[in-house]
């Protein structure tokens, strides 16, 4: 048929520029592009609705390239659609080029940063889930490789997509048999993939991924699907398809052609018209996301004679914010009655997503929501964010606007024991650039800081406490990202204690005990860990008798608040003494475990007294 003859030429043009661009770059993955060229050509020619002038148009279809190493495929597709000249692809992987080795937000048509394999289906599920909840008509297409199907997150995403009836999600599985170092787990045994996706509740079509007619029929069926099942198009393909000395050959992953090899390959492709293009269907409407980054006042009052858990206050404040900001969504991992996001769920069930115990999928689903302007809050136990460390890292590369909240931090959670204790979380979030890390100690500071998270454009993370704590502040107190509060001070303070979260109360106890003995110390509540309040720390350092700041935190010693404080005052000729958790904890009461970890009031008193004399010479 004539339409398929032209499509064949367009697929050849995709192959041509995947080869040219990677040879120009001297690195890349051309063979991974060649296997999917026919699939992509049919999709863009006939089934993809998109407004190039408005990549964030809520009526655009979404295309997620999960196999991010095949980025030249993505770049060529949008070039052929008219977004830019194909000649610009010669800048692939060059410094400053929009065409990086793997897609990032600099390339405005990328739905997410990809390349850490196995995450694209989750991002796509987030996009498809949002369309369902907001009655948007777009379809989400996710192109995966077969190697990444060994990743557990893929099956977390498949489970989620099936459970949520995402019949607007179409997974395109490029089964080209060859991975980086060897054959994939199932090679070309397509039936293995069919049975697995069927078991997860997908509508499955197995095809020859190089037969344009079969591809066309598969997309036609998938895009008309409205039976509540997500679709999986399982395509048997050949890596390096179209070039005889590459096709289905091992040891070509991540290798580019030399100049003479490129000429040989182009000769095999034959004369291909560089002016061939995809005339994308434009959506009937244009509606752009409306992300509201504004400070919203929340009226709450707390009884000074009562104690409150900051995790519970967080849930109440978030719900009040949700009343005024309709862009806030919340995702849970089956702990909503511990993080208290269940309060939000009861008020706004349509903006609440239950991801169950699948934290990796949850984070990447949030990345999908953020792409289209939502403000997703992702809440679970702080300890469990570490199992999604790579997904968090990639979400940050994607420049997402996710708000993370980790409850049950530190040894102070008590009897549950070390498997539930978040003691690495500050280092996890704090190591990434421009990430806000907060740890309120009481109800008032929590109520004032959660609205700042919503107003802040970008990543932020809050630690919340399991234990109930006393109300330290008055309702009129103001809190800011990058701020702190001085809770104890005098005109002759010996040194400064900088505490955060539960240890603020230990520091206050220690200060009051020492005052009874005639020793004055300054106490700071470092509720903002990143950015930390450098000015206040420096001021305290200069005003105390000894240029010493003792940091006390319920977190491991390395990567915690103490390191942020040390970096802040490194030019002040002062010393930071870190009191933190230095061993694996155990079950016990909060007070027993704080004492066992060496971060209770009695240990702070002992440390201050050591600093009074010459017992510690080297800091």
In whole angstroms, the N-to-C terminal distance is: 79 Å
The geometry reads as: elongated
As a percent range, the share of strand residues is 15-25%
Q: Biggest sheet, open or closed, and with what strands and sense?
A: 7 strands, mixed
Q: So how many helices?
A: 21
Q: Return the structural class.
A: alpha/beta
Provide the residue-averaged pLDDT.
Answer: 96
| Sequence of strands across the biggest β-sheet | 8-7-9-10-12-11-17
List the helices and strands and how they pair.
Layout: H1 2-25, H2 30-47, E1 62-65, H3 71-80, H4 120-133, E2 140-145, H5 152-163, E3 169-175, H6 190-199, E4 203-208, H7 212-223, E5 231-236, H8 259-269, E6 307-309, H9 310-324, E7 328-332, H10 336-339, H11 342-347, E8 352-354, H12 359-371, E9 375-381, H13 382-385, H14 389-397, E10 403-407, H15 425-430, E11 436-438, H16 443-455, E12 460-463, E13 468-470, E14 485-488, E15 496-499, H17 503-516, E16 522-525, E17 528-530, H18 534-543, E18 548-556, H19 561-568, E19 575-581, H20 590-596, H21 601-612
Parallel strand pairs: 1-2, 2-3, 3-5, 4-5, 7-8, 7-9, 9-10, 10-12, 11-12, 15-16, 15-18, 18-19
Antiparallel strand pairs: 6-13, 11-17, 14-16
Helix pairs in contact: 1-2, 1-3, 1-8, 2-3, 2-7, 4-5, 4-12, 9-16, 12-14, 17-21
